[in-house]
Amino acid sequence: MFFSDAYTYNLVGGKIEKTKLKSEGTFDEVLNKFRAQKKITMPNVKEGSVIEYKYTIKSPSDRLIREWNFQETIPVNYSEFITYVPEYYVFNSRQKGYFFPKMTVEKGPRSIMFTSKERSEGRVTTTTFSTDKIDYTETRTTYIAQDFPAMKEESFVNNMDNYVSSIQHELSMTKFPGSQMKMYSTDWESVVKTIYDYESFGPELNKTGYYEDDLKVLLAGKNTPEEKIWTILNHVKANVKWNGYTGYDCDNGVKKAYKEKTGNIGDINLMLTSMLRYAGLTANPVLLSTRENGIALFPNRTAFDYVVAAVETPQGNLLLDASNKFSTPNILPFRTINWTGRLIRKDGTSEEIDLTPKKVSNDIVFLSYSIDAEGKVSGKTRRQYTDHMAMITRERIDGVKQEDYLEKLENKSGKIEISDYSRTNEKEILLPAIETYAFTGNDLCEIIGGKIYISPMLFFTNDKNPFKQEVREYPVDFGFPQMDKYNITIQIPEGFAVETLPAPALINMEDNAGSFKFNVATNGNSLQVIIANQINEAIFSAEKYEMLKEYYKGMIAKETEKIVLKRI
């Protein structure tokens, strides 16, 4: 890739001033050991400047037409993409996104001249030149996008690139003069079979000698599949650390990764799969594309960038990833929860499997507090996370100094003061992650006209609807089903009584997609509030957006209602 022209235009004194990019304004930057990028710094840029640049990308292959995006993070006034394809090539094209450019197709005659030379040896060497002209038909396809809106980040979107208006091409067939037709289009079965046959994939699964002695000791006395799975998963986690690189095939190779105690995703999870097989379990690798990598339109080898292990059980496939120390069976890192994966068996056959979790992950809060006559709140919190919620929480607090974590928590929670902080089950990751603390706060309720106004959820109150836009084009992706539940006990101050309580509420979405429950009861000088928000679907289509938006609107309205206490 190279930039041929780049200019900045400024309006100075009523005249257009043009500044050309100089060579020192271009930079080559290495992203990682697999990728690099070229950057330019436009000269003389200021507010109101217009920039113009031209670049050329040359593909090393005649089989590749790069993807073209018609949308950007800013509105696009005009975008034009043209392909010129000789009759000897057939490409399949597919568009994605919610806005489609206008397309026109024209065919026309073209020709190309070939010059060849022939040398004859003898007493005098002679060179003869000949010229051949080949006529062919060229298909010119033009895509024009006008006034396309900007791609705007929205809440709970899997990967915005999945929804950008773009055009992709796949080489389907070639037929050159004097040659047989050659087919290139393929299907997922062929793609995964090709991957399995890679030296850095299938053969790595068959290597066992480097770990056999260790596993024999570890598996002694382990008879059930559950015991074997947990033992092997923990062994790989403890002995091979992820180096930060993804990839479905091995980088170092399983033997070297085991010896050096580090490797990429392929090294770690192909090793894991091999060990599970060695233990007598039916285990297979599962290829997938991470959220960052997006979803492919065509079957191809670059569609995948990750691999996990699957163990067949009577209850279905159990998915495992040893690259994350907080991952447990069927609780994969959030980056991998991306629609579907492809399971490959030893014989090279494959099947698509759903990666979307079905089990609800919980975030349960037990909140008990008292209010004094001046409005000061003192109480205790116990928060319990399960499954994916637990894994995400453990990842978030891992390696963070407790004082830094608490300072952030205090500021986020409305300037409370936290004491007696503790965590439970930090190492027992099959159990819920639990944190408890005591707190006090002087600004958690309002006193107006001698009355106390308080939101029962205090600093846990959801007061903003994440779904604000009128119309949504993209699915809402929560990642996994989840429930937030709050059990709240409130002690009201001496000399006060309840004047107003929020009414109980129940909001149900259609087709059991989710429900919100709010209930409050009085018992002498104390109040009991139970609030639960359960989302049963991981992904909501755009057609369900209005329902989800209204659900959140009703939920937030109820959560922000105040309890009013008056003097007696």
What characteristics describe this protein?
568 residues, eight-stranded mixed β-sheet, alpha+beta
Summarize the structure in words.
- With about 575 residues, the protein is of the alpha+beta class.
- It is about 15% helix and about 40% strand.
- It has nine helices and 33 strands.
- An eight-stranded mixed sheet has the order 22-23-21-20-27-31-30-29. It has a five-stranded antiparallel sheet with strand order 17-16-15-18-19.
- Helix 4 packs antiparallel against helix 6 (about 265-280).
- The model has no long low-confidence stretch (mean pLDDT about 95).
Task: Reconstruct the topology from this structure.
Blueprint: E1 2-12, E2 15-20, E3 26-30, E4 36-40, E5 50-56, E6 68-69, E7 76-86, E8 89-96, E9 102-120, E10 126-148, E11 166-174, E12 182-183, H1 188-196, H2 202-205, H3 212-218, H4 225-239, E13 241-242, H5 254-260, E14 262-263, H6 265-278, E15 283-288, E16 306-313, E17 316-320, E18 340-344, E19 350-354, E20 361-371, E21 377-385, H7 387-397, H8 402-412, E22 417-424, E23 433-441, E24 445-448, E25 451-454, E26 476-477, E27 482-491, E28 496-500, E29 505-508, E30 514-523, E31 526-535, E32 539-540, H9 545-559, E33 563-567
Parallel strand pairs: 13-14, 20-27
Antiparallel strand pairs: 1-2, 1-5, 3-4, 6-11, 7-10, 8-11, 9-10, 11-12, 15-16, 15-18, 16-17, 18-19, 20-21, 21-23, 22-23, 24-25, 25-33, 26-32, 27-31, 28-33, 29-30, 30-31
